[in-house]
Amino acid sequence: MSTDSPSVAEALRARRSEVIGRHSPLFYDEPLHVVAGHGVWLTDADGVDHLDAYNNVPHVGHCNPVVVRAIAEQAARLNVHTRYLHEPVVEYGEMLLATFAPHLDKVFFTNSGSEANELALRIARQHTRSTGVLVTDFSYHGNTMSLAEMTTGLTVAEPLGAHVRALRIPDVLSDPRSHGLVLAEALEEAAAAIASLQAAGHGLAALLFDPLFTTEGLLHPPAGYVEGLAALVHGAGGLVIADEVQSGLGRSGSAFWGHELHGVRPDLVTMGKPLGNGHPLGGVVTTTRLLDEFGSANMYFNTFAGNPVSAAAGAAVLRETADRELQASAAELGRHARKTLEELAADRPGVSAVRGTGLFFGLELVDDDGSASAGRAKHVVEDMVRRGVLISRIGPRDNVLKIRPPMVFEHQHLELLVDRLAASLDEMDAAVR
Predict the structure, then answer these.
(1) Pairing of strands 351-357, 164-167
(2) Is 394 in a helix, a strand, or coil?
(3) Where does residue 224 fall: left (phi above 0), alpha (psi -120 to 50 degrees), or beta otherwise?
(4) CA distance 54 to 86
């Protein structure tokens, strides 16, 4: 744990509040003052390294030398308005599209996931001439006004839009009924939500969802749910938008993009956070038909999105992901992590479920009576910082530990994480009892 002088840390927080304001959140009760990063480690102001088991933004590791070099070399050569002809964005676009199914053959670049989701919704609304949107009942897709009106997983001033319906996502880990019954009931609810939008005159423009249902708590819907939901959406004339900001780029291990886990064919795929390893970069991948339809009706360009330096960063991330076989590593390490975490949970009644896949997993914590325990989850997250490991928590009851490290995480890092997590859980249980 950092021993950064309280006066130094407090002074920095005070300066931050003066320029950013006191409402911009920081992680942890005692915010970590970081000064450097390398691989899966973040270094604090005292030179102490903390194992980063949380951040997906540095997809191929903090300050990855290949990405840093690509950014520096391109910045020294050319960075310019995207309306000039230059090769880096074309080369990167070709590389990115090669990772998708053939029907997804065009890309709009953006600067963030928020921009990407906003653009995808705009495309969907123009294509369908409808405004209705389906989201889940505890989700977050960005910070624009349109997205705030469909945010159900964070505090926002904007009320849920009249054109929005929030779906409950079924979870077979918490529902003891048969998977068939759970599936049928959930699809009936989705059909009713679509009918409600149609009856209100909104129609259905799109379904916007995170394939791993992350903010929702890494839910496990029954097999066929997402596929059935997509079929309902397409049947009503809507488009399917897969938000891959958290689930993409091989993180699941089993697939390069999260929507592939469900066997669906999205019409639009949105990306952000890890695409540039921390360099601002996002995108919307879609079909030729949708791109041509939108482009012919709108003079759309984005001054910075897909600029030469951003393209160089994105290309370097894809090369590192492929050259280091990080998807295969996520699959192999993820299997080991699940086995290890299930063994840890078996001996601890305060852990009710192990969730996630690949290098994205979590532990659901409960109180002695079996009810969701946000208090225990918060205690563990804060205690793990003191033990030099960074994690977080998610879910509507804030009781699922969120473990989502950079993709260069290795076995020795997992062992350290699990050892300290076990110690933290045991210490908490002893204190409770």
Answers:
(1) unpaired
(2) strand
(3) left
(4) 36
Between CA 400 and CA 380 the distance in angstroms is: 11
Please give the pLDDT value at position 336.
96
Tell me which residue of 67, 27, 28 sits closest to 310, measured CA to CA.
67
Does pLDDT of 256 surpass 90?
yes
Q: What ranges in 236-373 are assigned the alpha helix state H?
A: 288-297, 308-323, 326-346
> Which ranges in the chain are annotated with CATH 3.40.640.10?
65-323
Question: What sign does the dihedral 289-290-295-301 (CA atoms) show?
Answer: negative
pLDDT digits (tens, 9 = 90+) for 307-334: 999 999 999 999 999 999 999 999 999 9
Instruction: Name the residue type at position 41.
Output: W
- Among 391, 282, 405, 390, smallest CA distance to 334 is for 405
Q: What is the average pLDDT value for the chain, to the nearest integer?
A: 96
Give dist(CA 424, CA 385) in Å, integer: 10
In this structure, the dihedral spanned by the alpha carbons of residues 57, 59, 65 and 71, taken in order and rounded to 10 degrees, is: -60
Please report the pLDDT score of residue 8 as a whole number: 84
CA dist 433 and 423 (Å) reads 15
CATH for 65-323, among 1.20.1260.10, 3.40.640.10, 3.40.50.960, 3.40.800.20? 3.40.640.10
CATH topology of domain 6-60+326-432: Aspartate Aminotransferase, domain 1 (3.90.1150)
* 3-class DSSP string for 158-169: CCCCCCEEEECC
Return d(Cα 122, Cα 131) in angstroms, integer.
9
| Structural tokens at position 45 | 């102001």
SS3 429: helix
Calculate mean pLDDT across residues 50-72: 98
Q: How far is the C-alpha of 111 from the C-alpha of 271, rounded, in Å?
A: 10
- The span from the CA of 151 to the CA of 153, in Å, is 6
Q: Which residues contact 30 (CB under 8 A, 6 or more apart)?
A: 9, 385
Classify the phi-psi angles of 255: left when phi > 0, otherwise alpha if psi is within -120 to 50, otherwise beta.
beta
Q: What is the pLDDT of residues 29-45, one digit of tens each?
A: 999 999 999 999 999 99
Query: How far, in Å, CA of 75 to CA of 180, rounded?
Result: 55
User: What pLDDT score was predicted for residue 432?
Assistant: 65
Name the more confident of 405 and 430. Answer: 405
> What's the whole-number mean pLDDT along residues 160-176?
97
Q: Which residues make up the CATH 3.90.1150.10 domain(s) of the chain?
A: 6-60+326-432
